[in-house]
């Protein structure tokens, strides 16, 4: 009778291990990649903020810059009036804004993105907790209570 239970336990262990690797770890990677993408957007907006502030300080009308034509192919350009700029507001739309309007928009957008990163960080923590819970269930299922818990690398 004891031998009949062993294959079913092994099957359950395999199911839990598959669930961890196929579902939970994949979900964790997806959430962390999304969070990294949001961090990149925040960095781009902050870089734009620094550029706008340096433009305001220089008080020059003209500007020499490089423009990306696509596929990392850049051309030099001269902007005669840099008092207004086009800012990407999302979904492929650009809006012409003055420097002060752009700075206000950047402030609101970075605050919104920061809140989104906090949500994604909490989601990642929940997924990590689920992974730990399933691992603890596996440990109990296999009666491995004396084995020390392997620490997961903290990706936060």
From TrEMBL:
GO terms for biological process: angiogenesis; negative regulation of Notch signaling pathway; negative regulation of transcription by RNA polymerase II; positive regulation of transcription by RNA polymerase II. GO terms for cellular component: chromatin; mediator complex. CDD domains: Prefoldin_UXT (cd23158). One of its GO terms (molecular function) is transcription corepressor activity. SUPFAM superfamilies: Prefoldin. It holds the Pfam family Prefoldin. PANTHER family: MEDIATOR OF RNA POLYMERASE II TRANSCRIPTION SUBUNIT 10, PROTEIN UXT. Belongs to the UXT family. This is Protein UXT. It comes from Oncorhynchus mykiss (Rainbow trout).
């Amino acid at each position: 009778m004891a031998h009949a239970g062993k294959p079913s336990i092994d099957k359950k262990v395999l199911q839990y291990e598959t669930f961890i690797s196929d579902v939970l770890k994949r979900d964790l990677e997806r959430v962390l990649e999304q969070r990294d993408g949001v961090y990149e957007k925040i960095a781009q907006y902050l870089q734009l903020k620094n550029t706008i502030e340096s433009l305001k300080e220089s008080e020059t009308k003209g500007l020499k810059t490089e423009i990306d034509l696509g596929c990392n192919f850049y051309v030099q350009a001269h902007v005669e009036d840099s008092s207004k700029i086009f800012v990407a507001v999302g979904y492929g739309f650009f809006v012409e804004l003055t420097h002060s309007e752009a700075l206000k928009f950047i402030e609101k957008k970075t605050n919104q993105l920061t809140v989104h990163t906090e949500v994604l960080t909490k989601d990642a923590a929940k997924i990590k907790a689920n992974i730990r819970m399933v691992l603890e269930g596996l440990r109990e299922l296999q009666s491995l209570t004396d084995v020390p818990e392997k620490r997961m690398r903290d990706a936060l």
